[in-house]
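Incident log, structure service

09:12 report received: a user says their structure output differs between two submissions of the same chain.
09:20 pulled the input from the user's history:
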Amino acid sequence: AFRGTAPINLTERLYQILRWSGGSLEMFFSHSNALLAGRRLHPLQRVAYLNMSTYPIVTVFIFFYNLFPVMWLISEQYYIQRPFGEYLLYLVAVIAMIHVIGMFEVKWAGITLLDWCRNEQFYMIGSTGVYPTAVLYMALKLVTGKGIYFRLTSKQTAASSGDKFADLYTVRWVPLLIPTIVIMVVNVAAVGVAVGKAAAWGPLTEPGWLAVLGMVFNVWILVLLYPFALGVMGQWGKRPAVLFVAMAMAVAAVAAMYVAFGAPYQAELSG
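09:34 re-ran on a clean worker, output below:
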């Protein structure tokens, strides 16, 4: 899943990004940041440097936004307020502009569309675990005064095996993987609950179509985290069909549990 990104496995790659993002934050909170730079720095240069030194902070909001589907598990309320038409209009406009910018990036950088899609996926992977961790480290440094310890990443590959990408399938379990795994579990469970609601109440009823609409959000998050799921599977990541079967079984199990226990309980409350 990570061929062309780095000649290292998922864990080492995440540690590498953690070191980069932590260094960016340290630059912002130092006397060398773009706000305090000399007069010779162009205003657009200041904006560019600020963007490159503060981007991990923004991802904290992305992390919590990806956890919103947990509301499907505890409430019948849809987490986007009405009016839905106006919200969808703004949503479609924003998404369209993002993809137009992406197309220009592909054209100007001379990269393929697949490479750009992989970059977007890995940005989401970093936003759910690595960048928030870097922000946490930086906050601890500001409070305690202790610096951030970064381990060096290993870039050696198993050339002796004849496959220069062999190390990509080595899984080393570290706490840095936990936040993204939690977000994946939450969104898989949310898809299961949405399927269960559509099956129990009918897709044309208000609870049913709201569940289907919300499920699109959950599925999109899972698509962006798809390379991460393959990465934590290790050697099994060479067989993506295993991942799809496991996710389908998990969704079916959650949906069945909702139909058996959740739907009668909600019907009793509404009655």
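09:41 both user submissions now match this output. Likely a transient worker issue. Closing.
09:42 reviewer note: The chain has nine helices and no strands. Confidence is low (pLDDT under 50) at residues 157-161.
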